[in-house]
């Protein structure tokens, strides 16, 4: 079992990559999952848990259910099961589940521990590490939440064998994001290797988690460099909001957002056409070539202001500087931005 | 202006006692208050604020409104006003308002700063210092929330001139609590002085805040000594829950809870009859002699298990050891506890 360490202000924890072993906890445990994942993997997990008592809460799947109603459902079960401050919550599922369990455990009795067991590629390489938790509301994505670091993360690549192809690709989008922003060697490696190969995939998962762990350890609460992980996300969050979180998986929206960011970076002289082509090449290989039609450029623009990254009414963008480096700026001329938006508005 | 410093893991902040001066903030400010307090003091506060933009949210008053609905109302205004991560929330009101604004600001975009301006005696001496935030639900009091320290606390004793007599007494209950648990000299001083005298009251406020600040600095997240501040509260939370937060003010319920705790402490040999009499003498002087009738001892007992202090199904009690010291224990024989409960059940 491979272990990667994440260091944060209040605690240090491990991301363990490999087959799930025993989870031992002195106290009560509440496992939260969604119907589909529970059907496939809940029993296996329950067999691994040694605790005083184990309870289960099943909440609906999907970004459209990442709301306070689901949090309330999790809390209800926690209260009815009389979980106390020494209890543990476990998230078994994708990013939606880990974001919600991180939040619910963080506000239950002012905070109990939680562990995440990500079952999607996206959650394994990105969402489950770093302590960002939260829910969506009508104003946008992840707008309500807290920083709450997990006690441990268990990444089991075996779960990916049953992952639908679209979800696999959505996860690859975040892997490509990490490489573009932080690691040129990794990017070149991705060009030469196929993530459909299981060994390659495990290498890419470990490398992505290592990048994420480094970034989070440097900047837990996103005062600076951690913001770079939002490459593509400034656009993606608006796209997801406009489509009510129904049309695209998060990683698919991020892929569209990366292309938009690249287009704008080109206009600003930060990227070359060659670099953009090499990113497009990788995205296309994993079918991350979704179209998006911006119906109303003005209203799309307005929605940037609901993003957490927007401060003092300035929109924050993350642009690759070539491959392996990144620029964060809130000084993008509105006319340049509108040129890019209009390109998707035709 | 007198200043008391509170040191916590992530930040150090001041409690400023005296007339409110200027509050300068680069960014947006959202002031949250209740209808009654806003009517009396909002304009004065707005005159003191220098900020880019100032917004106001008014939420209903009282413990029965300290729920997620009110949090949602505050967040709505925050989103509609496009508050960002550099924005500031200000709580103008009693403990209900400061608990809710602390929670709302802590989960808005994963956390923005907040300042509390407590307008009740109880909030000035206790609730506004220490970073405990949260809301009630059908399972009990303050069961959902986070630790979120304010950026500053402004205590203006002038607000107390319009405080209803009952609310004044409720605040005195927490002052007496501090003295009994932590400070024998202060307790004796309380016996010799009348808090209806304005100068005496200001001395008692400062002394209580100093005690609270010391305890919080020692044990921010209540792993040990901070638990002592819950003297009387184990019982009080059940009483408040049984009466739907309508019958008693929090401090009134705490006074009943202190008497119950004292009765049990006497049975356990931790307190003398003389000490109990001297506490009763102080409570009675401020009309803190409310009766409570426990209708069903078993169901009262059951409700202890919803308290955050209950762990591994053991109820945690705080008992004075004489005056000025305290014992925290979760090893109270059930029969002794039932004897005390039955005394209030007659």
Could you give the topology of this structure?
2 copies of one chain form a homodimer.
Chain A: E1 2-7, E2 12-17, E3 23-33, H1 35-48, E4 49-58, H2 68-80, E5 88-93, H3 95-107, E6 113-118, H4 121-127, E7 135-137, E8 140-144, E9 152-155, H5 165-182, H6 184-192, H7 198-218, H8 233-242, H9 250-267, H10 273-285, H11 297-303, E10 317-320, E11 326-329, H12 334-343
Parallel strand pairs in A: 2-9, 3-4, 3-5, 5-6, 6-9
Antiparallel strand pairs in A: 1-2, 7-8, 10-11
Helix pairs in contact in A: 2-3, 4-5, 4-7, 5-6, 5-7, 5-9, 8-9, 9-10, 9-12
Binding site for NAD(+) (chains A, B): 61-66, 95-99, 119-120, 132, 141
Family (chains A, B): Belongs to the sugar phosphate cyclases superfamily. Dehydroquinate synthase family.
Binding site for Zn(2+) (chains A, B): 174, 233, 250
Brief write-up:
2 copies of one chain form a homodimer. Chain A is of the alpha/beta class and 346 residues long.
């Amino acid at each position: 079992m491979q272990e990667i360490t994440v260091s944060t202000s209040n605690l240090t924890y491990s991301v363990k990559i490999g087959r799930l072993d025993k989870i031992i906890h002195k106290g009560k445990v509440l496992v939260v999952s969604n119907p589909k994942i529970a059907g496939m993997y809940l029993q296996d997990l329950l067999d691994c848990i040694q605790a005083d008592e184990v309870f289960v809460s099943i909440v609906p799947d999907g970004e459209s259910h990442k709301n306070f109603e689901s949090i309330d459902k999790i809390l209800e079960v926690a209260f009815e099961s009389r979980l106390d401050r020494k209890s543990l919550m476990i998230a078994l599922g994708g990013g939606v589940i880990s974001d919600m369990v991180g939040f619910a455990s963080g506000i239950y009795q002012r905070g109990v521990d939680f562990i995440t067991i990500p079952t999607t590629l996206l959650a394994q390489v990105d969402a489950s590490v770093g302590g960002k938790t939260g829910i969506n509301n009508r104003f946008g994505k992840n707008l309500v939440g807290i920083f709450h670091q997990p006690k441990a993360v268990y990444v089991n690549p075996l779960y990916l064998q049953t992952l639908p192809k679209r979800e696999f690709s959505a996860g690859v989008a975040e892997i490509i994001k990490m490489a573009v922003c932080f690691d040129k060697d990794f990017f070149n490696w991705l060009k030469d290797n196929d993530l459909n190969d299981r060994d390659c995939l495990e290498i890419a998962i470990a490398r992505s988690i290592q990048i994420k762990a480094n970034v989070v350890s440097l900047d837990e609460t996103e005062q600076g460099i951690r913001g770079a992980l939002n490459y593509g996300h400034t656009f993606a969050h608006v796209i997801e909001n406009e489509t009510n979180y129904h049309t695209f998986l998060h990683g698919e929206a991020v892929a569209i957002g990366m292309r938009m960011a690249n287009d704008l970076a080109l206009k600003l002289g930060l990227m070359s056409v060659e670099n953009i082509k090499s990113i497009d090449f990788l995205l296309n290989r994993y079918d991350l070539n979704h179209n998006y039609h911006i119906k109303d450029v003005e209203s799309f623009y307005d929605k940037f202001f609901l993003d957490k990254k927007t401060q003092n009414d300035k929109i924050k963008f993350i642009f690759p500087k070539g491959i392996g480096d990144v620029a964060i700026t809130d000084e993008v001329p509105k006319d340049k931005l509108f040129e890019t938006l209009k390109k998707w508005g035709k």
